[in-house]
Design a protein that fits this description.
The complex is a heterodimer of chains A (about 475) and B (about 210). Chain A has about 475 residues and is of the alpha/beta class. Chain A contains 23 helices and twelve strands. In chain A, a hairpin with a 5-residue loop joins strand 5 and strand 6. The radius of gyration of chain A is 25 Å and the shape is globular. Chain B is built from seven helices and twelve strands. In chain B, a hairpin with a 4-residue loop joins strand 5 and strand 6. Classes of the chains: A alpha/beta (about 475), B alpha/beta (about 210). At the A-B interface, helix 4, helix 5, helix 9, helix 11 and helix 12 of A face helix 1, helix 2, helix 6, helix 7 and strand 9 of B.
Chain lengths: ~475, ~210
């Protein structure tokens, strides 16, 4: 029995396969740019957006510096409202807690709102192996569950799936429906999923959701959705289980509002997502609906070890997905290539923290260091700097491939000998500039086919190296 | 030692020295302090206009009702316009119980698997984003908000707030403690099929607000 199986060490092979996958490339082409345009417009419409980002960063830093105290305050509030808090150090512990709760509720079926923490814990496979059927209710999650896949994006889990692939998955799974039905438009596909899932909402004994925030002041868990599936998931079964990681805490309702103001705008460009739900405890006496039991599973899984390290700032992340939406690497290879739960720049930093640099050390190399992720991050996480730190650790632990180590070693040897470096640079630049003297471009170059196979290399301009020109100008 | 104790110990071991209790107490005692967006500060007629504009931007519709007794007539009109059956389901809210619903068939209780139209009363509205705030309970069961194909919501204009700041203050003053506080901004939607946004994912396909002056 394995956790969400990591294929992170195979990132390079995964990425190559992703680039050759025509369906994936078509899906990525379809979504590329959408998120960017919408976020940019939302930012323009709110002059205080950047000031709110600063405030959100400060709130999260304050929480991380006092996390123990806020967790205790939060727990006390949940208990006071009639709920239960379960602490899990590892994914295995969290799974065992969830299974126990499901058995207590006599569950045969468990509905799930979108939760990345449950992906981290591999809840679906674990429940299925123990005779309990997990049903994903977020439309995107439902689609990938039918296809036997995991999310490729933290807020748009099925962004890699094309419309014909969705139709095929529905026809295969919904065999109780007329095989000749018309599914040629998008609305028909959405309506079919709505109809199928509507029935399932009323069958499950347990509903599992994630939490975008946990509020220390009140003991609320907060979910932010557009579909309404999270609310049906948590309101109809007799037990509601919230799975959340430690760092989801915010102190007050006002602090939650600051996060909400940047979350939707950064994620989908919405001022507010359609449904923002604050839940506290089980149904009240006299309530005709809502769960009879309310449980929160608080997951650490390596996060407390990130405190007071160069990677602490990563715990500010509010999971909006803006970094991957703006990342040229993510946009070229999609989320599955990253090989574990969290893709894109945030995944490249978080994954080695949670599963170890030996497993996840490849991911921080999946960056051109263009810096857009840091530029758009609503809580200003210095993602490129952290990826650099991981690269250093990977190098120190001798995990970097031998060819790359030799190359870096050679460069370091020269870089520490300025005279040698300048001579080599002058020779190299002169040679390249002669090679491309006619067009200013070099179409093919031995040892650099990785570059010239896809595009020309611009030839260095004439007139010597930077150092030569600098000296000449100072004279 | 429990998982709880081990987790908290690790966090404490990483913490900087200082009177951390006092820092937390001070933060909790003075909630807020973030930048106040201009769009959260509207007043009077401008607040009402902004709220209605934001509802429109969120793909919700809105109509004004001059007196509570007018609500059944306004609802009947909307049901006819939308070619919906003359039926409505709502909770035990005394605001609805005292009305003469005329030709509209009413039923009471939580949401059901198929329900063409449901009606709830919102506690507050936020002009900042066109958001309705509902409190779950016997008066307004939470499932009515999600299981009606068209969801109608009554909001008193007096309960309209500028934005989150004055809303949280008003919320605390009203002293409610429902199982859920539901913020709703437009009808449900998804872009998971082909990355094209479509209304009516799992919740309502349409949301209509009756603003009571």
């Amino acid at each position: 029995m394995s956790l969400h199986e990591a294929t992170t060490p195979a990132f390079r092979a995964n990425a190559r396969a992703a680039l050759d996958n025509a369906n994936l490339q078509a899906a990525l082409r379809g979504s590329r740019g959408n998120f960017i345009t919408k976020r940019a417009r939302a930012r323009e419409d709110l002059p205080e957006f950047d000031a709110l980002r600063d405030r959100a960063r400060d709130i999260k830093d304050h929480v991380l510096a006092h996390l123990d105290l806020y967790l205790e305050a939060y727990e006390a509030q949940v208990i006071a409202s009639g709920g239960h808090v379960h602490w899990a150090e590892t994914a295995e512990e969290a799974r065992a807690i969830v299974l126990d709760l499901c058995r207590m509720a006599g569950a045969k079926a468990v509905n799930k709102g979108k939760t990345m923490i449950s992906e981290e814990c591999g809840i679906n496979d674990f429940l299925a192996e123990n005779g309990i059927a997990p049903v994903e209710t977020d439309l995107g999650e439902y689609i990938i569950q039918l296809r036997g896949e995991v999310p490729s994006h933290i807020i748009a889990p099925a962004v890699h799936v094309t419309v014909p692939e969705i139709e095929a998955a529905f026809r295969k799974a919904h065999t109780h429906l007329d095989p000749d039905r018309d599914l040629s438009d998008l609305a028909a596909l959405q309506a079919e999923a709505r109809g199928v899932l509507r029935e399932k909402y009323f069958q499950a004994e347990v509903g599992i959701t994630g939490a975008n925030m946990l509020i220390a002041e009140t003991g609320h868990s907060v979910i932010v959705t557009n579909e309404g599936n999270g609310d049906l998931t948590q309101s109809l079964p007799r037990m509601h289980i919230v799975m959340a990681s430690l760092e989801k805490i915010v102190p007050t309702l006002e602090d939650a509002a600051t996060i909400l103001r940047i979350l939707g705008r950064s994620a989908t460009g919405q001022e507010m997502s359609v449904y923002t739900t604050f839940s506290r405890g089980p149904r009240r006496p006299g309530d005709p609906d809502g769960p009879e039991e309310y449980h929160v599973v608080l997951l650490d899984n390596g996060r407390s070890n990130m405190l007071a390290t160069p990677f602490q700032d990563m715990l500010r992340c509010i999971r909006c997905g803006a970094c991957m939406n703006h990342c040229p690497v993510y946009q070229a290879v999609g989320g599955h290539a990253y090989g574990w739960v969290y893709p894109g720049p945030m995944g490249a930093v978080l994954t080695p923290s949670l599963i170890g640099v030996e497993q996840g050390g490849q991911l921080p190399n999946a960056s051109s260091f263009c810096g857009r992720c840091e530029e758009v991050c609503p809580v200003r996480i210095p993602l490129p700097g952290m990826m650099r730190s991981w690269r250093e650790r990977e190098f120190e632990k001798r995990l970097t491939p031998a060819a790359m180590r030799r190359g870096l070693g050679l460069w370091a040897f020269a870089a520490r000998r300025p005279r040698l470096y300048r001579i080599a640079a002058r020779l190299g630049a002169g040679l390249l500039s002669r090679l491309g003297s006619k067009t200013g471009r070099i179409a093919s170059l031995p040892f650099a086919r990785g570059w010239t196979g896809e595009r020309d290399l611009p030839a260095p301009q004439r007139g010597g190296t930077f150092m030569d020109r600098w000296k000449a100008a100072r004279r | 030692m429990s998982a709880r104790a081990r987790i908290l110990d690790r966090i404490r071991a990483a913490a900087a020295p200082g009177d951390r209790q006092a820092t937390v107490a001070a933060w909790m005692a003075a909630p807020g302090g973030g930048p106040l967006p201009h769009q959260a500060t509207s007043h009077g007629a401008q607040r009402l206009t902004q709220f209605m504009q934001k509802l429109d931007a969120a793909a919700a519709t809105v109509g004004r009702v001059s007196a509570l007794a007018e609500l059944p007539k306004a609802l009947a009109h909307e049901l006819r316009k939308r070619k919906l059956p003359a039926r409505i389901r709502f909770g035990d809210d005394p605001v609805f119980a005292g009305l003469d619903w005329g030709t509209i068939g009413t039923s009471r209780g939580p949401g059901r698997i198929e329900e063409p139209a449901t009606l709830s009363r919102a506690e507050f509205g936020l002009a900042e984003t066109g958001t309705l705030v509902l409190a779950s309970g016997p008066d307004n069961p939470v499932t009515l908000t999600f299981l009606g194909e068209t969801h109608f919501v009554l909001l008193r204009e007096a309960d309209l707030c500028g934005g989150f700041e004055d809303f949280w203050t008003a919320w605390r003053e009203r002293g409610l403690d429902p199982r859920t506080l539901n913020m709703v901004t437009g009808p449900s939607r998804s872009a998971d099929v082909g990355q094209v946004l479509q209304l009516g994912a799992h919740g309502p396909v349409a949301l209509h607000v009756f603003l009571l002056s």
